[in-house]
Design a protein that fits this description.
The complex is a heterodimer of chains A (about 190) and B (about 800).
Chain A (H helix, E strand, L loop, with lengths): L1 H19 L6 E5 L4 E4 L4 E9 L6 E9 L6 E5 L7 E2 L7 E4 L9 E5 L8 E13 L13 E15 L3 H21 L9
Chain B lengths: L1 H8 L4 H10 L5 E6 L10 E3 L3 E5 L9 E5 L7 E5 L9 E10 L7 E11 L3 E14 L5 E8 L4 E11 L9 E12 L11 E3 L9 E3 L4 E5 L9 E5 L8 E4 L9 E10 L7 E11 L2 E13 L5 E9 L9 E7 L6 E11 L11 H4 L6 E5 L6 H10 L2 E4 L5 H4 L9 H12 L3 E9 L24 H22 L5 E6 L14 H6 L2 H13 L4 E6 L5 H16 L6 E4 L2 E3 L5 H13 L5 E10 L19 H20 L7 E3 L31 H7 L10 E8 L5 E8 L6 E6 L3 E6 L6 E3 L5 E6 L4 E9 L8 E10 L4 E10 L2
Classes of the chains: A alpha+beta (about 190), B alpha+beta (about 800).
């Protein structure tokens, strides 16, 4: 009887130890690093990303992403949901570079409204939802019961709204014109001499 | 005793002062008098650059007066510092005499103003008496009015000025015989803001006494709370009952909440009507003021008599202010209990938050409807901080400016316009002709006899109404000149239920649709530079919009001068859709006729479109915070849409600034409504943040994710967690659906429970999370089956929505 109790306790102890073992968190960096993008009203900007997951015996699958910042001047569209991205031990790789390609790969895109405020800076985080498994989800023998945990990774980003080239060009032309007028009205000073 | 001596002392002004003495209260005392007879300026100095000199050219009495010349702006005049003369909270009557110099031929308008700098309320300009009193060079005109000192002034500058357009800005004038009388002392001592609470639990009367012989007794026979209350019996009249002194507890110019519970007494035989009133006595004259209006009290029920914001506006002699409970009629017994008088500190605006108009300056000016109470104190501060355009709510309407034919009054409108001009604000003119005849004097539609209605069949009547419209517009529009950049020339002319799309109001009934032409043409002639609008409500309604288009095209095709359309936009919490609002503006823009467009009267009632009976404020209640949050999200969506209409919208004007002053408190019924951007204490609501920075909305950033999976294949449990990262509650949060779309693996059909939606989370407080479980039977699904979860959710009563779309979900 005592032996049975010990086994039961031991059986209970093992999963407790397992669940207590920390699950490594992934590292996700935007491409470009720092997450700062700039674009004109009406344009679409996007981020690629680098995913690093160095767990010795766990694999990560990305599920989706969302943007936490203000979306007054535009909207965020998630790309993760349409990609099957797995990182982890061999045969997978612990380091993935996923470039931004409009409509297909990357973290997601931010569509700036046509009337977005020029000069505005939109800041926030892109949050990525992910699942961790103790088996490789790309393996034919994968068992979904190997689900270990779900988690989120948060990456700071910023979008600056810049003038359209035409607007920018007009500003440059106006500045040059102003300078020319100023010069016409105030000819270059020539040092006076005796 | 005092007055005869004073009158003797003032022998030189005997006649004038005798008249004054008759009008003054018994204890009135002169604290300042300036006759300039000594040949000096008697400490009066220049204000706004005027030149002052003592002169014998003219005098109201005696031989001397002050002469004011060299003026270049309205405020240029004589001034004197009175901060050491006027007592805080005392009330004064100030009188002065003005006459234009003999070389001035116009009729100007003048006033006395006190520039009041107060440590608590900042700088305010307080007009003493009428804002604009006519003055000429042919005789002396008296300017007079009362002034109650502010609480803690650091400067009080009294000055005289000529207001209005040129030549008021430059005309010279004489100034004489200034008298400052204290007519009411400060009310008995320092202001006591501690309030009063009486629960009668100590067995006493708690300071209550009988007004006229009724019997007051502490009783345990009944109580609203605790064990005791006050029973009032043997009343001799409706006004007889319990009273309590509020001396020093209620101060002129301060705000209070008043609350008391009442119940009819054991001998009462029928339902009754009770109210709370205030009695004040000033200078021997007693007056009575309703504090809580007549409230039905049914037999057997405790009823709450309450007013959340009562503005005390009465000076009184020391010890002469009482709150009391009375009945509308009859003398039935009643109980009172749990009385509370609470001082409400004056609102202070938030200075550290972004300005609305500056935030939106890239898109359009932002305006507010105002009245004269918005020109001073914190309301003025709120106005100038957040808005760069104004429209007068009522003071430019026909009934306000021409209440009798040919007699024009611009006092309030001028004050508002001058405030706007002085603060570099745009001014919308509203309105010249109101199609339905609202706020239009009845004489407009009567023949000269003042009795006979005008008739379309009588050519003389047609000519008379035409002339009246033209006369009105020819007087009003030039009066404001170029200060007004847009005029709502015709207000609310559209009626989609009529075959010709036009409201068949009193103008139409005499003139047909030509009244619109007459008004627009007169306005164009009166101010060729102003944009001329027609302004209407519910323009997002498809039928009304179609009619609006028809009328606009008709006017343009016939060459009638029309420049723009005002969309009033008095919205309800569920009406209209943003799509419909945007469609209305795009429809007018797409006509290609170059019509200017503005949102002119924006507000957002907390009631649904069909609800004309509910009252959140009943029984001391208030609007649920979830509705206030919902309103914030709706305002955010409105302004998202308005921003995207940049170039098509040239202005957005709110019908008010703060919930302490909204027309919706009395329309369609008397009820609590909170439709604006700032609350009754002038603090920013979610509605404000929705416009300026939606990330500050309660519940903003609410997100959902799958956070756990467990259980066997045929009963797999997925945990969905909602996370509220914001500073406020995510109200009424729920999941509206849960579907899985298979993207990999051999096809299978998961069975999801629950099957009924919504799955309700309720309110998720700031920074908190909440979870729900879905049980899914994946029987028949291979291990490598992958799914995309699609889960719509909503919060803030459906105004904040989103969908969790999460891919690569194994079972």
């Amino acid at each position: 009887m005592k032996r049975i109790v010990s086994l039961v306790l031991f059986a209970a102890f093992i999963p407790a130890c397992l669940s207590a073992a920390p699950v490594p968190a992934p590292t996700i960096q935007t491409i470009p690093i720092g997450g700062k993008l700039a674009g004109q009203p009406g344009s679409a900007l996007g981020w690629g990303f680098t995913l690093t997951y160095n767990a010795p015996s766990d694999w990560i699958v990305l599920n989706d992403s969302f943007f936490t910042g203000g979306q007054v001047y535009g909207t965020y569209n998630d790309y993760i949901v349409n990609q099957f991205i797995v990182a982890g031990p061999a045969p997978e790789t612990a380091l993935l570079d996923i470039p931004f390609s409009r409509g297909s790969t990357g973290l997601g895109e931010f569509d700036i409204n046509r009337t977005g405020l020029i000069g505005a800076s939109i800041t926030g985080n892109i949050v990525v939802d992910y699942d961790v498994f103790s088996q490789d989800p790309n393996s034919p023998d994968f068992d979904p019961n190997s689900f270990v945990t779900a988690g989120q990774a948060s990456i700071p980003v910023a979008i600056n709204i810049t003038p359209e080239p035409a607007t920018f060009g007009l500003i440059v032309v106006a500045a040059l014109l102003g300078l020319w007028c100023y010069r016409r009205a105030n000819p270059c000073a020539i040092p006076a001499g005796n | 005793m005092f007055l005869p001596a004073a009158c003797q002392f003032l022998g030189r002004f005997a006649l004038a002062f005798v008249a004054l003495c008759g009008a003054l209260p018994a204890f009135a005392q002169i604290v300042g008098q300036y006759d300039f007879e000594d040949g000096t300026q008697q400490n009066w100095t220049s204000f706004c650059g005027a030149a002052l000199s003592n002169t014998t050219e003219a005098a109201e009495s005696g031989t001397h007066s002050l002469k004011i010349t060299g003026r270049s702006q309205n405020c240029a005049g004589p001034s004197i510092e009175l901060v050491n003369v006027l007592l805080p909270k005392a009330t004064y009557q100030i009188t002065a005499w003005v006459r234009l110099t003999s070389d001035e031929t116009s009729t100007d308008t003048a006033n006395l103003t006190i520039k009041q700098v107060d440590s608590s309320s900042g700088t305010n300009y307080v007009t003493v008496g009428n804002y604009a009193t006519n003055v000429t060079s042919s005789g002396w005109t008296q300017l007079t009015g009362t002034y109650t000192g502010s609480a803690s002034p650091t400067s009080l500058t009294l000055y005289a000025q000529l207001v209005g357009n040129a030549p008021n800005t430059t005309d010279s004038f004489y100034f004489d015989n200034v008298t400052i009388n204290e007519i009411s002392e400060p009310p008995g001592g320092p202001q006591d803001n501690s309030g009063i609470t009486t629960t009668f639990e100590d067995g006493g009367l708690d300071g209550w006494s009988s007004r006229a012989g009724s019997t007051l007794a502490n009783t345990t026979a009944d109580a609203h709370s605790g064990a005791h209350s006050l029973l009032i019996t043997s009343r001799i009249a409706a006004y007889d009952g319990p009273q309590i002194s509020v001396n020093n507890k209620m101060y002129n110019g301060s705000e209070y909440s008043v609350s008391v519970w009442v119940k009819l007494g054991p001998n009462a035989a029928q339902n009754d009507t009770l109210r709370v009133s205030l009695q004040t006595t000033l200078a021997g004259t007693t007056s009575y003021h309703t504090v809580v209006s007549n409230t039905p009290v049914a037999l057997g029920n405790w009823v709450h008599l309450v007013v959340p914001n009562y503005a005390m506006a009465f000076a009184y002699d020391p010890g002469q202010a009482f709150l009391y409970v009375e009945s509308n009629s009859g003398t039935q017994d009643f109980y009172i209990d749990d009385f509370q008088l609470t001082y409400i500190p004056p609102p202070q605006i938030q200075t550290g938050i972004p300005s609305i108009f500056q935030t939106l300056s890239y898109y359009f000016p932002v305006g507010a409807e105002i009245d004269t109470t918005d020109l001073n104190g914190p309301h003025a501060q709120l106005l100038t901080k957040h808005f760069n355009s104004v429209v007068s709510g009522n003071d430019m309407k026909w009934s306000s400016v021409e209440p009798t034919e040919g007699s024009f009054t611009f006092t309030n409108a001028d004050a508002e316009v001058n405030f706007a001009v002085n603060n570099n604000m745009l001014i919308r003119g509203h309105n010249l002709v109101w199609a339905t005849g609202q706020q239009t004097p009845t004489w407009v539609f009567l023949e000269k006899d003042g009795v006979t209605p005008l008739s379309a069949q009588n050519p003389a009547d047609v000519a008379l109404l035409t002339q009246r419209i033209e006369n009105h517009i020819n007087a009003v529009v030039p009066h404001f000149g170029t200060k007004v950049y847009v005029w709502d020339v015709v207000n609310e002319p559209i009626d989609a239920s009529q075959p010709d799309c036009l409201a068949h109001g009193p103008f139409y009934k005499v003139l047909g649709k030509s009244y619109i032409d007459i008004a627009l043409e007169a306005a164009r002639a009166a101010n060729p530079g102003a944009k001329l609008y027609i302004n209407d409500y519910s323009t997002s309604d498809p039928n009304k919009l179609a009619c609006l288009v028809q009328v606009l095209e008709d006017l343009r095709n016939r060459g009638i001068p029309i420049d723009g359309v005002g969309h009033e936009t008095h919205n309800r919490i569920d009406y209209p859709s943003i799509t419909a609002m945007v469609n209305a503006i795009n429809t007018i823009a797409d006509l290609g006729l170059g019509f200017d467009q503005q949102i002119t009267e924006l507000d957002l009632s907390v009631y649904r479109g069909s609800d004309n009976t509910s009252n959140y404020g009943a029984n001391g209640g208030t609007v649920p915070p979830s509705i206030i949050a919902q309103q914030g999200y709706l305002y955010a969506q409105y302004f998202d849409a308005f921003r995207q209409l940049k170039g098509k919208l040239s202005g957005v004007t709110f019908w008010g600034m703060a919930d302490d002053n909204t027309w919706l408190d009395s329309f369609p019924i008397n009820r609590l409504d909170l439709p604006l951007l700032f609350d009754t204490g002038l603090q920013a609501k979610p509605a404000y943040w929705g416009i300026v920075d939606p990330t500050q909305l309660p519940g903003y950033g609410l997100s959902f994710s799958v956070t756990a999976k467990s259980g066997p294949q045929n009963a797999r449990v997925w945990t969905i967690t909602a996370n509220n990262p914001s500073q406020g509650t995510a109200y009424a949060t729920q999941i509206g659906g849960f579907t899985l779309t298979q993207v990999a693996g051999a096809a299978c059909t998961p069975v999801i429970a629950p099957t009924t939606f919504p799955v309700v989370f309720g309110d998720i407080t700031a920074g908190a999370s909440a979870s729900a479980s879905f049980t899914i039977d994946f029987t028949g699904c291979p291990n490598l089956a992958r799914f995309t979860l699609n889960m719509p959710w909503s919060s803030a009563n459906g105004a904040d929505t989103g969908t969790l779309v999460s891919g690569n979900q194994f079972r």
